[in-house]
Amino acid sequence: MAPGWMLQPLPAPGGAQLLALERAPVLAPLRYRVIAIPGSGCAGMGTFAPRYFAGLQHAQLLVLHKPGVDPWARTPAADCPPDFVQRDALSAWRAAAQQALTAWLAQQPALPTWLLGISEGAELLADLAPQLPHLAGLVLIGASGLDPQEAGALQAARLGQQAAWQALARAQAGEAPDHTVVQGRSLRYWRDLWQWRLAQPLRDGPWPLLQVWGGADALVPEAAYQRFAARTRQRSAPYCALRLAGADHGLQGPAPGQDGLPQVWALLEQAARTQGQIDCP
């Protein structure tokens, strides 16, 4: 494990454990905390977390993986084992994250905290935010902010896969049991996704919101990002939208070494010096 990082097993429902990664600040003084919720699939962030989060130098970090994810696993999403596919559902993930966070925060000092959702991890932000008494704001990376069913429909239209998306809609509304696997996910997963509400809680929430995406994102269409941004115009709390031209879903640019993440981390580092105020580009 990289210096400064440690494995942090945390309690989850049913006596299970959620495996998190924790890191102390790289540089003193400790100014703030970032709790990161990674995206979909069964691979962990352990092999690249030190490089990914390197720019958060004055932050304490907690990377809260999905239940059943080994932080050092590098399994492609299409190859996740059957037991993971059956456990994977937004409602189960939320319950595990809520219990794990409650246990971890009980042992931590008060600190301004940013809650960060990476791709699918952003689906949990509105539900986890009320647990953080010193919440500085929410950060969405590669996440549209829309309800996932709406974002999925826009992506299906972009790819010309409306018929497949409509077939999935019929399957999740049908009578087949939850454990039935359709398009690589269980119907339990798809039923959760179809009912999940994110856009309105994010729009109406009292927390500052920073949303960052790549202009060449292949997994979330530009139309989804723009639709959510339009809905936040009447938001009472601050909203900052940062579009990185040419960057992909992970904010990586087309040229070797072209990485948009340091720009995001610089905004949080600066906010820590200015009472939490994001200097929106």
Description of the structure:
It contains 10 helices and 10 strands. By secondary structure, the protein is of the alpha/beta class. The strands form 2 sheets. An 8-stranded mixed beta sheet has the order 1-2-4-3-5-6-9-10. The chain has a two-stranded antiparallel sheet with strand order 7-8. Strand 5, helix 4 and strand 6 form a beta-alpha-beta unit. Helix 6 packs across helix 7.
Q: How are the elements arranged and paired?
A:
Layout: E1 5-11, E2 17-23, E3 32-37, H1 49-52, E4 59-64, H2 82-87, H3 90-105, E5 113-118, H4 125-128, E6 135-141, H5 148-159, H6 162-173, E7 181-182, E8 185-186, H7 187-195, H8 199-204, E9 209-214, H9 222-231, E10 239-244, H10 261-273
Parallel strand pairs: 3-4, 3-5, 5-6, 6-9, 9-10
Antiparallel strand pairs: 1-2, 2-4, 7-8
Helix pairs in contact: 6-7
Helix content class: 25-40%
Count of individual helical segments? 10
Rg, Å, rounded: 18 Å
Strand content: 15-25%
User: Strand order across the biggest sheet?
Assistant: 1-2-4-3-5-6-9-10
Largest sheet, if any?
A: 8 strands, mixed
What is the subunit arrangement here?
single chain
- The tally of strands reads 10
As residue ranges, the low-confidence spans are none
Order of helices and strands: EEEHEHHEHEHHEEHHEHEH
**Chain-averaged pLDDT:** 95
Shape: globular
How far is it from the N-terminal to the C-terminal residue, by CA?
35 Å
Structural class: alpha/beta
